[in-house]
Specification:
224 residues, alpha/beta, Rossmann fold, seven-stranded mixed β-sheet, binds S-adenosylmethionine
Length: 224
Amino acid sequence: MTAPLPSKSLWRIACLCTLRSRRWERCYTIMKLRSDPVYAAVTQELAGSTLPVLDIGCGIGLLAFYLRESGYAAPIVGFDYDPKKIACAQSMVARSDYGGLGFMTGDARQGLPECNGHAVILDILQFFTLAEQTALLSTVAAHVSPGGKLIIRTCLRDDSRRFRITVAGDWLAKLTFWMKGSPVCYPTRELFETVLGGAGLKVRVQPLWGGTPFNNHLIVAERA
Ligand SMILES: C[S@@+](CC[C@H](N)C(=O)[O-])C[C@H]1O[C@@H](n2cnc3c(N)ncnc32)[C@H](O)[C@@H]1O
């Protein structure tokens, strides 16, 4: 397992949110990067690759900044339907010396930017209906190049206590206005095996709980 980035690197990312009005974004950034195991897990999956990355539902671009601090040098495109988050990501890039990062606004249900290589989807599938999840996964699979990976972090629907806690957390995020969308449908493991396996990708699913109470899993689908 790749070690998490040292505090110095995490602070370098958080300090890109320096404006007074963005103080909450700075606090959020450092807390999230310190506590969430997903950034180190994705970095480990991409280690050694030179393919571009498309980050779908990128939020304020934390994964892109984390990858740059980890030495990942290929182009990274972040895509999110919340214009405030994209504006924040763009202003962080403008204050940084990271090159090759682009952020754009758009709804993943209506198409994706042109970017072939790896693709990443972290924590957004629950906002989609089953039909939208199936369509998105099929479309994204076509963006994965030979040697590329589609890396997903999602809560899997099952009958565990962890699943119920995750649902409560997502509703809290909606009620506090942190998330624009309400959770609609949590995917099952079978969805990934059927849709991504059917698109010719080799699929592996593993728990990614870290120190959280959530039912998060990492799904890695690789094109040979
Ligand atoms: C829980 S946040 C995860 C942010 C980011 N992936 C991360 O891990 O730091 C989910 C993100 O998905 C975005 N999102 C939700 N539905 C979307 C859609 N249909 N198209 C694009 N982005 C979407 C939200 O705006 C939000 O930024």
